[in-house]
């Protein structure tokens, strides 16, 4: 198991050092500094073995977190734990910075004592931890016996992520469907690969211990209910941002630990008692019938050896009433470019020599529109026989719908002990689709 | 409240000031001072001098202060054990506190203070806490048992904590169960033979129930523990799989990987034609793909693991294809992933068809890699060669320039690997001669033309066409062209005389490249003096090429599959390669696959103590080169003092006592054969062997087995300096190359004139074996008795005098229990142990014996045998060696 945990600043000075196992000595602290932080060549592997001691590290801004062990530990677990550690620290004192860590070092030691015992991760849900570890020191001593046993049963209990007795005057929840759409397209417009990775993020402000049930247009569920004859021609007919699409095929999804997995496995229903505040309910991945919000049509012509003519057309492919934002098209230019003239109808375009690309930015663009840029690229003559590799044209954007076609059908809230019903809960749903790696070869 | 100010004090009299503040009456000031102390401790300053002052602050109601003091204690208690005792009372008191948080804190902290005296006091409170009404205290106490076991294993056993811990597996609270499982797994790891984690269907059921309820970390502990279980039949296997499968949707990727591990292992038990088997296989792939979109560090772990998994299960179906493309995307966009992404052939084997598809689609670099991979695939896996070659031919037909060039380069290698098999494709290759513009491809093509000149009608024309621009070519091409034309000339001397003269003069006279000139001159002279010799040199048979790849040996792969998610799977090394001591030496195997060694848990297991782990190649190499005179750190774990003599003796001998005694009938002494170097540690070379003394000559009898896929040659052996100066008396006689799956028996005579260095244990021998692949290291232990020389019989008078002379310090006594040794003098004498005198006192036979070692040291022993009682008492008097370990002496006497 984890033998020790160190936090360093960017200079490699130790801010926090907690050793859990006898086989980890003080020299381990220095070994990591010398061999990784101050390494002459950047260490690319997140796992380093120095003198039979393994170091796992993650970096947050310029802070290094390192877990050390001499055993054959579960590597995935160690990284998950380090991420969790970052989450917990962020939940307590905000950004992970040298200043914040120094300001809260007593708190961090206290947390480390609680969430890692002899190197074994223990309950690390902030919801539970905050009931008995606070920045103002420990509340423990002023608590009654009932409160104490409530804390301990919560920390060790089945619902470790939520404490009892939460009350809100207004019961409210926010659902964000955040997707990133990835595409690789051939110059002729053939999709070489496309996938969407999405997340459902929930912010819940609900009283008591509410039982929630989340429903979406999952093809398996819809088909089972016999409602959708959807599979015949789902995506094709609708260019309207997925509104007409009945159901989607989800390749794979993972859930926050609050979701009852065995129930999902058997009935494919998503039921849970949510943590309080913001958390990620699920992640998913789809590859079929993806709505590609933009189509890029490139045209590159070589005029002699010293000139290139580039014309790129982008077409928005969603409902005209919707607006895409933060659009950026990046057109790579050869290394021997000497000058560029750009003409575009919409937005602003600039040649950025340092990035070897023409960057074309458009603030907003409605659906079913088209825009065009043309550029003349002057080249310096070179002896280099090797042809320009023509990297793909990449795009960035943000659209107010889910390119996978995912729709939230319902999120029902039941709290039998308190006097509010599903109808009293104010619910908000928002869809945001962003570009991941969105590339078209030219 | 900001605490950063505590980091800033760097004044000189700091310790003094802190001391004063710690003893202040004001609570606030005390707390501030302790914080300063902790801050100093963190940055590495030595504040141990403040120990008594800090401990004095322990008696407080303030929980925050208490925690800080505890933190300090954990760090420094070991350096001040006497003073640490001062803290015991407070701990014991805190364990009785009404607040469960304080009870748990106390027991948690006590377990971290590694001072013997404190651990004694820990037992009672721990026992209470293990049965505490509060689950929070119980879960903390469960881990504390593991802590205590790490400090004093015997104590834990004696106090019966293990049973209590086992009971906790049935606890009502899932977190208590999870921690108990974690603690038991860890303890069990250091006792590979004990039946600690007694997993049976009932406990498995309990674990599976807890799995649904406990924290994400608890799920990992439970899944990792489940992976060690072997189901009784395929039905049980299936039902476990069914209950583990939902974990594949967990957000925590460690849970997912551990679940994959369990499923991969238990799937082996299922019949392959079962519908469920197929369903399960389908379910495995998507979560693995999902892992690839995790954070970069986890992505790295996931990639290394997927790498293993696809080598084991080729058919992960359509998803793999997607994974593959994802890979290519990651590669193409290095800005995305800061981590070096690694390809393995296994990927390519699975996706050969897709490769072809992509070879024309995506970017140049990727295509090149893909084509090259097809070639490597052909070379490594003979069965796939046919398919690979036809794929490559298809690719050449595409006429895409860089594809063709890359394909020709790899085809050249395929020709060399499989001579006279695929030459029919040469025609197609020649068609593409003109389009080649990269040196490597041109060189490859020229090589092909030269090598197969007799089959290519217009070989001379082809080569001549290259010759025109000779000076514009890169050196690589020039050299190749020179050789190819010489080959051609030797094959078809009549038609090509002119050509060869041309190239020789180009190479020798017009070129300033020394390499080229030299080669030109050599050929020229060869051709002019002795054409037959030239033929022998230039057209000599070429050795087959073999491909070093990242494909993992099947045995190692099997073990690694059992370690999915762990460091072993990230390093692609067995845990013993990077974990010290006994932990992790235990080898895991997949169920249902070919069993090589009996289960380690069996009774005979005790005698199969694996050879000591060699620390690291670096250290050992240093020793082998005689650069280092310090005793090596290797010495396997010292046998636990409790294990009893008999056990220790067996450890050393590697065989059961019975076999030993049986063998005493022969004049030679044999020890049962042991595997010294397992195949997975030595790239497929397995060495097992034994030692013997035959007719006064010490011999090392070894069996070398090649379990790799390629031929092994050039064997050599070397010993590290050792206690008795053992050294090989001759070279290792492995004359013919060792082909795959072949074994060879070698007897290596030893002498004792090598360099001497005391080893621990004394009879440890570190050996390096070299072959054409690498150098491997192992260590083994030889029976001391093989060092007893034939003239070890001491005169009676001398014996008596010597016995008296040797100081008492050198004498040690042992009991050998339950040993039915018919110790007649002649048998012992066969092993060069000579009985000098025998007398009977009060129904006991007393035997006095002497033996002499190769280095001239005498050993004297007194063996007391009680008639009708199988127990022997031995007292031994030693010569010059002061520090024989107990075990050594026992072995010695037993022989």
UniProtKB/TrEMBL annotation, chain A:
Binding locations of a 1,2-diacyl-sn-glycero-3-phospho-(1D-myo-inositol-3,4,5-trisphosphate): 348, 350, 352, 361, 363
Keyword Protein transport appears in the UniProt entry: yes
Top-level taxon in the UniProt lineage: Eukaryota
Domain MHD: 170-441
Major localization class: membrane
PROSITE patterns: CLAT_ADAPTOR_M_1, CLAT_ADAPTOR_M_2, MHD
Gene Ontology BP terms: endocytosis; intracellular protein transport; Wnt signaling pathway
Start and end residues of each stretch annotated as Disordered: 225-244
UniProt cross-references to Gene3D superfamilies, sorted A to Z: 3.30.450.60, Mu homology domain, subdomain B
Subcellular location: Cell membrane; Membrane, Coated pit
Membrane topology value: Peripheral membrane protein
InterPro entries to which the protein is assigned, alphabetical: Adaptor_comp_med_subunit, AP2_Mu_C_sf, AP2_Mu_N, AP_mu_sigma_su, Clathrin_mu, Clathrin_mu_CS, Longin-like_dom_sf, MHD
Key words of the record: Cell membrane, Coated pit, Endocytosis, Lipid-binding, Membrane, Protein transport, Transport
Free-text function comment from the UniProt entry: Component of the adaptor complexes which link clathrin to receptors in coated vesicles. Clathrin-associated protein complexes are believed to interact with the cytoplasmic tails of membrane proteins, leading to their selection and concentration. AP50 is a subunit of the plasma membrane adaptor. The complex binds polyphosphoinositide-containing lipids.
Description of how the protein assembles with itself and partners: Adaptor protein complex 2 (AP-2) is a heterotetramer composed of two large adaptins (alpha-type subunit and beta-type subunit), a medium adaptin (mu-type subunit) and a small adaptin (sigma-type subunit).
UniProt similarity note: Belongs to the adaptor complexes medium subunit family.
Record's protein name: MHD domain-containing protein
Record organism: Monopterus albus (Swamp eel)
TrEMBL record, chain B:
GO cellular component: clathrin adaptor complex; cytoplasmic vesicle; endomembrane system
Molecular function, one GO term: clathrin binding
Residue ranges annotated for the Beta-adaptin appendage C-terminal subdomain domain, each copy included: 788-895
Domain Clathrin adaptor alpha/beta/gamma-adaptin appendage Ig-like subdomain, residue spans: 669-779
Pfam families noted in UniProt: Adaptin_N, Alpha_adaptinC2, B2-adapt-app_C
Ranges where the record places region Disordered: 589-612
Bilayer topology term: Peripheral membrane protein
GO BP of this protein: intracellular protein transport; vesicle-mediated transport
Biased composition (Low complexity): 596-611
Alphabetized UniProt keyword annotations: Acetylation, Membrane, Protein transport, Transport
Subcellular location: Endomembrane system
Family: Belongs to the adaptor complexes large subunit family.
Protein name: AP complex subunit beta
Organism of derivation: Monopterus albus
């Amino acid at each position: 198991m984890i033998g020790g945990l160190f936090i360093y600043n960017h200079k490699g000075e130790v801010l926090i050092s907690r050793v859990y196992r006898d086989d980890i000595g003080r020299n381990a602290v220095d070994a990591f500094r010398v061999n990784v932080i101050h390494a002459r060549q950047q260490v690319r592997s997140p796992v380093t073995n120095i003198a039979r001691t393994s170091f796992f590290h993650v970096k947050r801004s310029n802070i290094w977190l390192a877990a050390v062990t001499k055993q054959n530990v579960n590597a995935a677990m160690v990284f998950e734990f380090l991420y969790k550690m970052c989450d917990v620290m962020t939940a307590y004192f905000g950004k992970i910075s040298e200043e914040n860590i120094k300001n809260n070092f007593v708190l961090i030691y206290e947390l480390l004592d609680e969430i890692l015992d002899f190197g074994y991760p223990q309950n690390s849900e902030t919801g539970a931890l905050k009931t008995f570890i606070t920045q103002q020191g420990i509340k423990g001593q002023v608590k009654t016996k009932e409160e104490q046993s409530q804390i301990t049963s919560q920390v060790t209990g089945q619902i470790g992520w939520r404490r009892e007795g939460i009350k809100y005057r207004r019961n409210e929840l926010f659902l964000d469907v955040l997707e990133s759409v990835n595409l690789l397209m051939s110059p002729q417009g053939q999709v070489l690969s496309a996938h969407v990775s999405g997340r459902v993020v929930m912010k819940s402000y609900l009283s008591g211990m509410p039982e929630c049930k989340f429903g979406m247009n999952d093809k398996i569920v819809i088909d089972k209910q016999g409602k959708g004859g959807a599979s015949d021609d789902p995506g094709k007919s609708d260019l309207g941002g997925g509104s007409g699409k009945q159901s989607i095929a989800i390749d794979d999804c993972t859930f926050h630990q609050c979701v009852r997995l065995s129930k999902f496995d058997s009935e494919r229903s998503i039921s849970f008692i949510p943590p309080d505040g913001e958390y990620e309910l699920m992640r998913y991945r789809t590859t079929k019938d993806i709505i590609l919000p933009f189509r890029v049509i490139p045209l590159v012509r070589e005029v002699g050896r010293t000139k290139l003519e580039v014309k790129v057309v982008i077409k928005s492919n969603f409902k005209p009433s919707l607006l895409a934002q933060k659009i950026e098209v990046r057109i790579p230019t050869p290394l021997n470019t000497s000058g560029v003239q750009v003409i575009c109808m919409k937005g602003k375009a600039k040649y950025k020599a340092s990035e070897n690309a023409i960057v074309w930015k458009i603030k907003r663009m409605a659906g079913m529109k088209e825009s065009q840029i043309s550029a003349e690229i002057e080249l310096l003559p070179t002896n280099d026989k090797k042809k320009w590799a023509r990297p793909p044209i990449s795009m960035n954007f943000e659209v107010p719908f889910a390119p996978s076609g995912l729709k939230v059908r319902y999120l029902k809230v039941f709290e039998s002990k308190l006097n509010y019903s599903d109808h009293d809960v104010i619910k908000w749903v928002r869809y945001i689709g962003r570009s991941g790696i969105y590339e078209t070869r030219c | 409240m900001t605490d950063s100010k505590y980091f800033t004090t760097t004044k000189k009299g700091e310790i003094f000031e802190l001391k004063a503040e710690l003893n202040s009456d004001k609570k606030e000031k005390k707390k501030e001072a302790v914080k300063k102390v902790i801050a100093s401790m963190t940055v590495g300053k030595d504040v141990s001098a403040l120990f008594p002052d800090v401990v004095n602050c322990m008696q407080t109601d303030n929980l925050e202060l208490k925690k800080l003091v505890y933190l300090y204690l954990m760090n420094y208690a070991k350096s001040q054990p006497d003073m640490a005792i001062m803290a015991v009372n407070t701990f014991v008191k805190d364990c009785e506190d009404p607040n469960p948080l304080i009870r748990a804190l106390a027991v948690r902290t006590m377990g971290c203070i590694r001072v013997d005296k404190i651990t004694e006091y820990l037992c009672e409170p721990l026992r209470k806490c293990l049965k505490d009404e509060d689950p929070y205290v119980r879960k903390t106490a469960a881990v504390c048992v593991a802590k205590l076991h790490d400090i004093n294993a015997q104590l834990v056993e004696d106090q019966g904590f293990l049973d209590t811990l086992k009971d906790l597996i049935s606890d009502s609270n899932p977190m208590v169960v999870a921690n108990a499982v974690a603690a038991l797994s860890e303890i069990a790891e250091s006792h590979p033979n004990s039946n600690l984690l007694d997993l049976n269907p009932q406990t498995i059921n309990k674990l599976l129930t807890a799995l649904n309820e406990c924290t994400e970390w608890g799920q990992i502990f439970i899944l990792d523990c489940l992976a060690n279980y072997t189901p009784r039949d395929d039905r049980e296997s299936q039902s476990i799989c069914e209950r583990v499968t939902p974990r594949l949707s967990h957000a925590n990727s460690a849970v997912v990987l551990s679940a994959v591990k369990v499923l991969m292992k238990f799937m082996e038990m299922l019949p392959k034609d079962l519908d469920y088997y197929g369903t399960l296989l389908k379910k495995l792939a998507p979560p693995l793909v999902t892992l690839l979109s995790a954070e970069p560090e986890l992505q790295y772990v996931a990639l290394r693991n997927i790498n293993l998994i696809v080598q084991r299960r080729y058919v992960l179906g359509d998803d793999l294809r997607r994974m593959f493309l994802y890979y290519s995307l990651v590669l193409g966009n290095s800005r995305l992933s800061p981590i070096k992404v690694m390809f393995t052939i296994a990927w390519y084997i699975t996706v050969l068809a897709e490769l072809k598809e992509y070879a024309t689609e995506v970017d140049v670099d990727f295509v090149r890699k893909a084509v090259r991979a097809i070639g490597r695939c052909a070379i490594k896996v003979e069965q796939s060669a046919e398919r690979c070659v036809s794929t490559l031919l298809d690719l050449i037909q595409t006429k895409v320039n860089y594809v063709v060039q890359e394909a020709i380069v790899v085809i050249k290698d395929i020709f060399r690997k499989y001579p006279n098999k695929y030459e029919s494709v040469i025609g197609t290759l020649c068609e593409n001669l003109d389009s080649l513009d990269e040196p490597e491809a041109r060189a490859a093509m020229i090589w092909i033309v030269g090598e197969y000149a007799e089959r290519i009608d217009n070989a001379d024309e082809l080569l001549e066409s290259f010759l025109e621009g000779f000076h514009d070519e890169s050196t690589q091409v020039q050299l190749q062209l020179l050789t190819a034309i010489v080959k051609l000339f030797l094959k078809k001397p009549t038609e090509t005389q002119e050509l060869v003269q041309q190239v020789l003069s180009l190479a020798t006279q017009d070129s300033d490249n020394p390499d080229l000139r030299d080669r030109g001159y050599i050929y020229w002279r060869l051709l002019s003096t002795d054409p037959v010799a030239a033929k022998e040199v230039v057209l000599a048979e070429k050795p087959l090429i073999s491909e070093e790849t990242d494909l993992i040996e099947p045995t190692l792969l099997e073990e690694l599959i059992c370690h999915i998610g762990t460091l072993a799977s990230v390093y692609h090394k067995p845990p013993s390669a990077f974990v010290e001591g006994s932990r992790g030496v235990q080898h895991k195997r997949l169920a249902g696959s070919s069993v090589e060694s009996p289960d380690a848990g069996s009774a005979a297991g005790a005698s199969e103590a694996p050879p000591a782990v060699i620390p690291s190649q670096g250290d050992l190499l240093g020793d082998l080169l005689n650069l280092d005179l310090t005793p090596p750190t290797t010495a396997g774990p010292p046998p636990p003092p409790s294990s009893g003599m008999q056990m220790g003796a067996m450890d050393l001998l590697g065989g059961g006592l019975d076999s030993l005694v049986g063998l005493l009938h022969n004049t030679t002494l044999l020890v049962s054969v042991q595997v010294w170097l397992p195949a997975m540690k030595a790239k497929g070379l397995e060495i097992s062997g034994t030692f013997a003394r035959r007719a006064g000559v010490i011999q090392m009898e070894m069996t070398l087995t090649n379990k790799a896929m390629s031929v092994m040659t050039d064997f050599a052996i070397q010993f590290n300096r050792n206690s008795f100066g053992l050294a090989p008396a001759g070279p290792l006689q492995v004359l013919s190359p060792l082909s795959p799956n072949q074994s060879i028996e070698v007897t290596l005579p030893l002498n004792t004139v090598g360099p001497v260095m005391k080893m621990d244990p004394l009879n440890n021998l570190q050996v390096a074996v070299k072959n054409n692949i690498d150098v491997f290291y192992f260590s083994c232990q030889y029976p001391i008795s093989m060092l007893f020389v034939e003239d070890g019989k001491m005169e009676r008078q001398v014996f008596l005098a010597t016995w008296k002379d040797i100081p008492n310090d050198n004498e040690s006594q042992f009991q050998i229990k339950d040993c039915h040794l018919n110790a007649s003098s002649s048998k012992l004498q066969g092993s060069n142990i000579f009985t000098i005198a025998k007398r009977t006192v009060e129904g006991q036979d007393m035997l006095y014996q002497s033996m002499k070692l190769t280095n001239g040291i005498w050993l004297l022993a007194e063996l007391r045998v009680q008639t009708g009682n199988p127990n022997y008492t031995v007292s031994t008097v030693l010569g010059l060696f002061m520090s024989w370990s107990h075990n050594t002496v026992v072995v010695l006497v037993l022989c």
